[in-house]
Design a protein that fits this description.
This protein has 10 helices and 2 strands, in the order H-H-H-H-H-H-H-E-E-H-H-H. The chain is mostly helical. The protein has a two-stranded antiparallel sheet with strand order 1-2. The N and C termini lie far apart (57 Å). Residues 220-231 have low confidence and may be disordered.
């Protein structure tokens, strides 16, 4: 159970595909003009992620390594086609808003990346939970960015007027606004992460992250430093053995 919850937490926060891994940025920047569009795109990607992870995990011992990626693309393309037809039939307004970005889910880096990095190596249930976590993280990032852009750009969100009539900074519903909003969200997430690491350092003395640790050179825990210190000792030992 712990492993399943960990996959959800990783997808939502620690390995958020948009805000941490920087994957799927093309649809994220393009369709996040409204919160509703973000939800629609996110849930579409989530459905494809979960099903593709499940199918690929079940077939991981059957698909030859030589045709692994083409097989993934065929599986994902089939699922995306079904998803596109369902959206077109039951949610025509959303289909018109998302446009070309629905079929482009086929080549979304998140889906192919999780298929190769996770579903190909783990059991079906863990792969499904990984797909749910990554899909929810993608949906949350797009929805939050869409809500921020919609409020600042039009004063509304989900059709409700939150700010006075006539308020709106149109730059936020244009392409530059997407870069500004996502940059702000990523900066906040990084700041929170840095504060968390600093808190762990104060409480326990070390957070284990030498690459981001300012005192790693003094505590001597860096792997490179250990190797440098161990090398002279090993050479001295070899020299002593040779003299004997």
């Amino acid at each position: 159970m712990k492993g399943y919850l960990e996959r959800l937490w990783n997808g939502l926060v620690k390995e958020n595909p948009v805000l941490v891994l920087m994957l799927g940025m093309c649809p994220a920047l393009a369709v996040s003009t409204q919160a509703a569009n973000g939800i629609g795109m996110g849930l579409s990607t989530l459905a494809v992620l979960v099903l593709s992870n499940l199918v690929i995990s079940c077939l991981r011992k059957v698909i030859p390594d030589q045709v692994r990626l083409p097989a993934y693309i065929v599986i994902v393309a089939s699922l995306v086609t079904v998803t596109e037809l369902l959206i077109k039939a039951y949610l025509p307004a959303l289909y018109e808003e998302l446009g070309i970005y629905i079929p482009l889910i086929v080549v979304n880096c998140i889906i192919l990346g999780r298929a190769e990095a996770y579903a190909n190596k783990h059991t079906p249930m863990l792969s499904v939970m990984d797909g749910i976590g990554m899909g929810l993280g993608f949906t949350a990032a797009l929805t939050l960015a869409g809500a921020i852009r919609e409020i600042l750009g039009t004063g509304k969100v989900f059709g409700a007027q939150l700010l006075p009539e006539g308020f709106g900074m149109t730059i936020f519903i244009q392409p530059p606004g997407a870069f500004l909003v996502f940059a702000l969200m990523i900066a906040i997430l990084n700041a929170v992460g840095i504060k968390t690491r600093q808190r762990k350092l104060v409480e326990s003395g070390c957070d284990g992250n030498c690459a981001l640790c300012a005192t790693a050179a003094d505590c001597g825990t860096k792997p490179a430093e250990k190797a440098v210190k161990a090398e002279p000792a090993a050479k001295a030992e070899e020299k002593g053995g040779a003299q004997k």
